[in-house]
Amino acid sequence: MISDLPAQGARALILVYRLTFSAFAGQWCRHAPSCSQFADEAIQRHGLWAGGWMTLGRICRCRPGGTDGFDPPPKALPAGADPLKPWRYAKWRGPLVCEAVEKPQ
Q: At the top level of its lineage, which domain of life is listed (predicted)?
């Protein structure tokens, strides 16, 4: 369909990235699946707008001091996600957020 063209174009760009730059730079992603695999699956599953925001959140988590481990795209859209509040599509912090620890008295 014509409405799927932007998402298909984005997925094609991800494929080009994976076959060119990523192949030469090596696989250094701390997450499984890799960020490019995450992006491809999120866009395929949820469309370019929602999947793109999910991917941006994932890239923000994949930084020094960020998260690592198994982190697939969600199967369903998060609660409260809305095209006018796109930041709600993404998970901006991972499960490894430091929490305050009470000191024994």
A: Bacteria
pTM over 0.85: no
Collapsing DSSP to helix, strand or coil, 66 comes out as coil
Helix orientation angle between 35-61 and 5-19, rounded to the nearest 10 degrees: 90
Q: Which residues 6+ apart lie within 8 Å of 77 measured at CB?
A: 46, 50, 89
Per-residue pLDDT tens for 66-94? 788 888 898 999 888 888 888 888 888 76
End-to-end CA distance of the chain: 65
Contact 60, 92 (CB under 8 A): yes
